[in-house]
Amino acid sequence: MLWYTVLVLAVAAERVVELVVARRNAAWTLARAGVEHGRGHYPVMVALHTALLAGCLIEPAVGDRPFVPALGWSMLAVVVLAQALRWWCIRTLGPYWNTRVIVVPGARLVRAGPYRFARHPNYVAVVAEIVALPLVHSAWVTAVVLSAANAVLMGVRVRCENTALAQAVTA
Questions:
Q1: Distance CA 74, CA 41 (A)
Q2: Does the keyword Membrane apply (predicted)?
Q3: What values do phi and psi take at 37, rounded to 5?
Q4: How far apart are CA 99 and CA 25, in angstroms?
Q5: Three-class SS string for the chain?
């Protein structure tokens, strides 16, 4: 459980770095007349990701969940790949990447990096991580419950992003 706790804390630290990058990028986009959309669902997203990290630590301890090597190591690989995909997205979008939905009117749609293959590859990383991180230490209840909640949230978030992009970004 010690190494799993270190992993979860490393993911939490990565989230803090994301928030620093997002804050810097928000200032950049807002200085260029960026418009924020979907403020109402953002606190729900923060709560979901916080619950993920908490559930990853609480469920294995309280539920006496074992580390199952075949499951744990394969899910760790998924977590690492999800982080790599997330940072590929962040790097590709540059100052346009954010944890919030902020678009600059008239900006061009990014079609480089992972965006050549999918419209929202960053959410592929999120979905993979929400499933895989808890399963590294057999926290299946956290994986199932938060995956279901995330599916609902992603429906709202993707619609919000698609609408915002359609209104503001040129092809």
A1: 32
A2: yes
A3: -125, 155
A4: 9
A5: CHHHHHHHHHHHHHHHHHHHHHHHHHHHHHCCCCEEECHHHHHHHHHHHHHHHHHHHHHHHHCCCCCCHHHHHHHHHHHHHHHHHHHHHHHHHHHHCCCCEEECCCCECCCCHHHHCCCCHHHHHHHHHHHHHHHCCCCHHHHHHHHHHHHHHHHHHHHHHHHHHHHHCEC
User: Residues 145, 149, 155, CA angle at the centre, nearest 5°?
Assistant: 150
Kindly state the tokens that stand for 167: 């209104």
Q: Strands (DSSP E) along the chain, which ranges?
A: 35-37, 101-103
Question: pLDDT, tens digit, for every residue of 64-123?
Answer: 999 999 999 999 999 999 999 999 999 999 999 999 999 999 988 899 999 999 999 999
